[in-house]
Amino acid sequence: MQINTYIASSSFYHRFDVRAKIIFTLLMCISVFFEMPLSMHYLLIVLITLLSLISVKLKVTLHNIKLLLPVTIFMVLFMPLQERSGSVLLSYHGFTIITYEGLHIVQVLISRFYFISLICTLLLETSTSRDILLALKSFKLPDSACMVLSLALRFIPSFASTFSRIKDSQRLRLPNPESADSEKKSFTKLIPTFTSALVVALKSINTTAAALDLRGYGRKRKKSEFHSLPGGIKLFTHLAISIIIPAIFLLTLEAINV
Questions:
Q1: Whole-angstrom Cα distance, residue 120 to residue 173?
Q2: Which of 3, 29, 56, 95 is 20 to 30 A from 165 in CA distance terms?
Q3: Which residues contact 87 (CB under 8 A, 6 or more apart)?
Q4: In a structure prediction context, what are the per-residue pLDDT tens digits for the chain, which is 258 residues long?
Q5: Are 165 and 178 in contact (CB under 8 A)?
């Protein structure tokens, strides 16, 4: 529960109140599902990418985008097949492969996926787990829900690194580790890695249970807090900005669609 994805920096988004960031993230994630021209989707992609570059710099931004590539490639390859009605863009012997409508749907879905993934990642990378949990408690969420989110924030950043370490250690046990990358990989070769990762997860149950017990999980007594989030005019200003920006975006969409 102490590992998080927070990246220390002094950008304005880091200094933005975490409660306002949660509201802003939620409202913008809802906003992208409103009907809008494709150009607006592209504009949102550019803006969220610029925000990521300003907040967590180029290296981290490229790493975040790299993590999205497998799902993006999957959507590009298979989503056009679900919409084959309309104007044909690509066909083979009379079989429609891609239509203009299908291509449009794919671009919209990819832009939504990219925007939502990146803005949620920025929330975790510019806010500590402690501040996020304090913000959720300030929204009057139950302690049990905060505990579940605490576990999620604990394991999301560490699972990928654990899996990678296990895979590398198993590669070193091969007679010639350098030739392993050139061989064709299959799902069966990943079974030992998944098994080891499962064992690691099972072995961490005692540690997780002890951490939950120390945090008072399951007790009815009201829990005390050592930390609190500041309030005042700064919080009011950040909350106002987090609501005004999505509101302006929605009004712009309304003006475009009229």
A1: 38
A2: 56
A3: 99, 100, 101
A4: 344 578 888 899 999 999 999 999 999 999 999 989 999 999 999 999 999 999 999 999 998 898 888 888 877 776 655 666 667 666 666 666 677 777 778 888 899 999 999 998 899 899 887 788 888 888 887 777 776 776 665 565 555 566 666 666 766 666 554 554 444 445 556 667 667 767 766 776 776 666 666 666 666 666 655 567 888 898 899 999 999 999 999 999 888 876
A5: no
Phi-psi region of 140 (alpha: psi -120 to 50; beta: other; left: phi over 0): left
63 CB-near residues (< 8 Å, 6+ apart): none
β-strand partners of 95: 92
| C-beta neighbour count of 32 within 10 angstroms | 20
What does the radius of gyration of the chain's CA atoms come to, in whole angstroms?
23
Which class for 119: exposed (0-12), middle (13-18), buried (19 or more C-beta within 10 A)?
A: buried
Q: Is residue 18 classed exposed, middle or buried when 0-12, 13-18 and 19+ CB atoms within 10 A define those classes?
A: buried
In this structure, the strands spanning 95-99 and 88-92 are antiparallel
DSSP SS3 for 51: helix
Q: Please choose, from the candidates 17, 6, 5, 8, the residue with its C-alpha nearest in 3D space to the C-alpha of residue 229.
A: 17
CA angle, residues 218, 5, 224, in degrees to nearest 5: 30
